[in-house]
UniProtKB/TrEMBL annotation:
Keyword Mitochondrion: no
Region (Disordered): 1-24
Native species: Nocardioides lentus
Stored InterPro entries: AB_hydrolase_fold (IPR029058), Dienelactn_hydro (IPR002925)
Name of protein: Dienelactone hydrolase family protein
């Protein structure tokens, strides 16, 4: 049985780009953005937990093969896809990934359909910082960053960069100051996250809420899943999307 059994496949077009999406559930909307290598069974299992909590979840397909496990071949193929695609920022600092414009459009469409105070946006690993970029739209009121890992932390400057242009970071600061908190999750010694949590604390102050676990593992919600982290995400979505 496919990991995506029971999920409704759809498509979303924005800025001339069309991508597949998978949707399931009822209630307030949440966009869950997969990590490398793609929509693996572990990512879908986490999304199923969000559905079971009473949310409408949309899974955009950005790269990889939907439903396939995170084997070495799948990881290598996904890395090749993102490395040749200019929509994904890998090393540049002070730059907002172009693909986040498409994701913001998806969030706006979901909010327009479902109503309520807004939608949630959750990114993981390579896409962890995308939820922060989605805050540029007021439709996103519950951004969650799970081990944000781009730009790749080569050197101190990239290690501290949160994947936004200066102009976009100023908008995120204003939204946070106006009352929109940001939830972040990581293992404390995860080298992929680098110094980004320090930057987020500096830029957002008490509006950045960090959930940190000891150790050097990586995937807080999937491969190295922490129940405390899953519960923190679900509680955050409840608080922000059901008011």
């Amino acid at each position: 049985m496919s990991a995506l059994e029971g999920w409704q496949q759809g498509r979303h077009t924005a800025d001339g780009t069309t991508r597949d999406t998978y949707r399931r559930g009822t209630g307030p909307g949440v966009v869950v953005i997969h990590e490398i290598p793609g929509l693996t069974p572990e990512v879908v299992a986490f999304a199923d937990e969000v559905v079971e909590r009473g949310f409408t979840v949309v899974l955009p397909h950005l790269f990889g093969t939907p439903g396939r496990g995170a084997g070495p071949g799948h990881v290598a193929r996904a890395l090749r896809q993102v490395c040749v695609n200019g929509e994904f920022v890998k090393l540049a600092t002070g730059t907002t990934a172009p693909v986040t414009g498409w994701l913001r459009s998806l969030a706006r469409e979901l909010h327009a359909e479902l109503g309520g105070p807004g939608v949630g946006a959750l990114g993981m690993c390579f896409t962890g910082g995308y939820a922060l970029a989605m805050m540029l739209d007021d439709a996103v009121v519950a951004p969650v960053l799970a081990q944000p890992s781009t730009p790749f932390p080569v050197g101190r400057r990239r290690s501290a960069d949160v994947g936004l242009s200066d102009e976009d970071l100023a908008i995120v600061r204003r939204r946070a100051a106006a009352g929109c908190p940001v939830l972040g999750l990581r293992y404390a010694d995860d080298p992929a996250v680098g110094r980004r949590f320090d930057t987020l604390r500096t830029e957002l102050g008490e509006r950045f809420v960090a959930v940190e676990f000891p150790g050097r593992r990586h995937a807080t919600l999937t491969l190295h899943r922490q129940q405390e982290g899953v519960d923190a995400v679900l509680d955050f979505l409840d608080e922000r999307l059901r008011s």
